[in-house]
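I have a small job for you when you get a moment. Would you make up a two-line entry for one protein for me to read? No commentary is needed, just the two lines. Write everything out right here, beneath this request.
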Amino acid sequence: MNCPVKIKDLCFRYDKDGKNILNNISLEAKSGEIIAIMGASGSGKSTLCYCIMGIIPHIYEGELSGEVHIFDKPVQKMKVPEIATKASIVFQDPDTQLFSPTVEDDIAFGPENLCLGRSEISERIDESLGLAEMDKYRLSDPDRLSGGEKQLIAIASVLSLHPEVIIFDEAMAQLDERSRRSVKTIIKKLKDEDKTVIIIEHETDNLDIADRLFALEDGTLLEKDMILKAGKVK
């Protein structure tokens, strides 16, 4: 099976003389797979996301060793815009990803930066809003939407880039139950489309859609057994 994300022996620390945030992380994420990574605050979850996305080392510097590959290409040798067409991230706070006067403009921003034609951009807006079931908000001002609605629009803006790998970095942390169900529905649709989904979470209630569960503990990645239907994680 195809593995869009391959990580081998990844170590990272921000300060040359500081403590490793990540220690010998190895992971393969397959197409059509939902992987969940949980851990306490400060365990290195976001740092791992940054390494997968190439934010480390292209934007944030530090001491990095090991390998991170997106579709068999090392992220260290890829440019950030190239990575963004293959892997995208949804953050906890949707306001960090929404900055335009209308929903349509926010979703068009990514495809426009890919220099796509007007008709292709319009198709991607339609497609992304349809997947998020937010069609009726196309001309709305994002600032007037609820937190859950904003998060769905942020997801749609990411999906407009047609990434094969989507990371949800605690994207359900501030949502109510109804909005969490909506996000989970989108994630399951992405799985059905053979996308690779990585969920970063600290709430076990949001992990019932995962195929595999890992925990980051003191910078070490450990695979966990799951009893999700019972709401328990071993």
Q: What stands out?
A: The CA atoms of residues 85 and 161 lie 6 Å apart. Helices lie at 45-53, 55-58, 80-84, 103-113, 118-132, 147-159, 177-192.
